[in-house]
Structures are given as structure tokens and as C-alpha cells.
Design a protein that fits this description.
The structure is a single chain. The mean pLDDT is about 90. The chain has eleven helices and twelve strands. It is about 40% helix and about 15% strand. With about 290 residues, it is an alpha/beta fold.
Length: about 290
């Protein structure tokens, strides 16, 4: 039987809600149907928002739902050196550059020429270039913060014809899981931030690295991250990582049509559990949302 390894990778920035329950069950049930492996990964690189109490609550919520996962659980905050090593490889290949502009400055630059700014999956797209070495050295000496941006122009030059030919495999969520090849188009992200001086990495770099390290064969996640598969396919190619298969599930929304948010405590699993609901009730609510 073909090896099947997948993961559920929440960030401990609040309580899990009904949408998280659906996502976790999608991943867990897919692994069980394939007689595969189900991993839990804690994506806690944002030290300012991630808290250990939320992480403990994630374990409690998932166990209450009846999910089982392999131990030990990988916590990204414990492996920052791994992501730095991956970043170093991109730096050495000349594929990233330091960007000293603040978020406010980037948005102001985009606003100054809105006719030139495209809208990408993560908002207005920024494209820049490295500073002159003398100017960069001066800013570094002053201790000015910066972000590492992935240069799409440099990536295109580095990969040549392979850049435009990049694609990824999307499987249907339901059996028989037919695969279709989808054009990657990472350029729609512009020169995306791949690491920051304070955090050392980004979601994109850390997730791609960990998927490769953990041997993830199937990435199953929400449709809001579908476009990210193209960017992740680029990073996998640049870093020589294997290509996983992707499946994307729909997002659950509330009565107002908006996605559930961690800040809405009324829909957290902890609140629903305290209200007397059982795991079977959660599955019923999910089925009702899905129509």
C-alpha cells in the first residue's frame, strides 16, 4: 500500500473552534481511510501571540473529539535553527534579499502607484530589489530591522524554464481522489516575506521545511490556503524537497457568512463542550454547515 502521512498543524493563538474541528477531522479521517499516519504539529513561531495554555487546550480538544496522534509532537519554536539553515541555503543561492521597509512603508509605496500594484493571495503585492551593499551595510550597522524577501525575479532566473512550468497535484477531497495538475504561479505573491529578523522564519518556510522533514505525503488543509500550494511548490523545488499531494476542504462559516474566528469564544470547542455537547454533536453541527 502506498505510504500516506498527513498532519494537522494549528497555531496556539486561541481556542480551537468548529472550523478547526472540521479541519482536524478531515485530516484524521483521511489518514485512517488510507491506513496511514496522522501527525499533530504545533506551529508556534509567532512568540507574541502563541501561548502554552492554548497549546494545552488544543491537545485537550482533539483528544475529546476522539483523535489520536503520534508522539512526540513537533513544536516549531524548538527548531528555529532548522529554518535558519533552510534560509541560509536561499541566501547563498542569491534568491532572497533584505528588505528594510516597514509594513507601513510598503503599503504607502503601493498606494503611491496603485495602477502598478497587483492584488495577491495575501494582499497587495510588493516587488523590490536588494539595496546597494554600502547602503545595506549602513542600515545593518544602525540595527534597523528587516525582513528577508524571496525574489521572484531571481527565482525565475535560477530555475529558467522550470519556473514557468512549476505545477502541483491537487486531489479531490472525496474518493476516488483524482489528481489534477495545477499551474503553480508563485509570482502572484510578489516578493513574499520568507523570514523576519525577530521571528527567524515565516509560515511558508517553516511549513514547507517541516512537511519535508516529517515525510508528509498529503497536505490536507482549508481552501483559503489553496494559492499557497503554488508558492510552497516553488520553495520545495528551490530546496530540493519532495512534492506532496494537496487536498483542500471548504471553510465553515457562521450565520453571517463569515469564517469562524478564534476571538469568537461562543463557537470554541471548549465552550461547546461546557455547554453539554458531545463529540457526536460536533460532527452533526459540521454536517449541517456543509449542507
Amino acid at each position: 500500500m502506498t505510504k500516506f502521512i498527513t498532519r494537522f498543524a494549528p497555531s496556539p493563538t486561541g481556542g480551537l473552534h468548529l472550523g478547526h474541528a472540521y479541519a482536524a477531522l478531515c485530516v484524521h479521517d483521511a489518514a485512517r481511510a488510507a491506513s496511514g499516519r496522522f501527525l499533530l504539529r504545533i506551529e508556534d513561531i509567532d512568540a507574541s501571540r502563541c501561548k502554552r495554555e492554548y497549546e494545552a487546550a488544543i491537545h485537550e480538544d482533539l483528544a475529546w473529539l476522539g483523535l489520536e496522534w503520534e508522539k512526540p509532537v513537533r513544536r516549531q519554536s524548538e527548531h528555529l535553527a532548522d529554518y535558519q539553515s533552510a534560509l541560509d541555503r536561499l541566501i547563498e543561492a542569491g534568491l532572497v534579499y533584505r528588505c528594510f521597509r516597514t509594513r507601513k512603508e510598503v503599503m504607502a509605496e503601493i498606494a503611491s502607484a496603485p495602477h502598478l500594484a497587483a492584488e495577491g493571495p495575501e494582499g497587495p503585492v510588493f516587488t523590490g530589489k536588494p539595496l546597494a551593499p554600502s547602503r545595506e551595510a549602513k542600515l545593518l550597522e544602525e540595527g534597523k530591522p528587516y525582513a528577508w524577501r524571496l525574489s521572484m525575479a531571481a527565482c525565475a532566473d535560477y530555475l529558467g524554464s522550470r519556473f514557468a512550468a512549476l505545477d502541483w497535484c491537487e486531489e479531490s477531497l472525496d474518493p476516488p481522489h483524482v489528481c489534477k495538475r495545477v499551474a503553480a504561479r508563485p509570482e502572484v505573491f510578489g516578493d513574499v516575506v520568507i523570514a523576519r529578523k525577530d521571528a527567524g522564519t515565516s509560515y511558508h518556510l517553516a511549513a514547507v521545511h517541516d512537511d519535508a522533514l516529517q515525510g508528509i505525503t498529503h497536505v490536507i488543509r482549508g481552501a483559503d490556503l489553496r494559492a499557497a500550494a503554488g508558492l510552497h511548490r516553488l520553495l520545495q523545488t528551490l530546496l530540493g524537497y519532495p512534492e506532496p499531494v494537496y487536498r483542500h476542504h471548504p471553510l465553515l462559516t457562521g450565520p453571517d457568512g463569515k469564517r469562524y474566528a478564534k476571538r469568537d469564544r461562543s463557537v470554541t470547542l471548549a465552550h461547546l463542550r461546557q455547554s453539554g455537547l458531545e463529540p457526536a454533536d460536533i460532527c452533526r453541527l459540521i454536517a449541517e454547515h456543509l449542507g
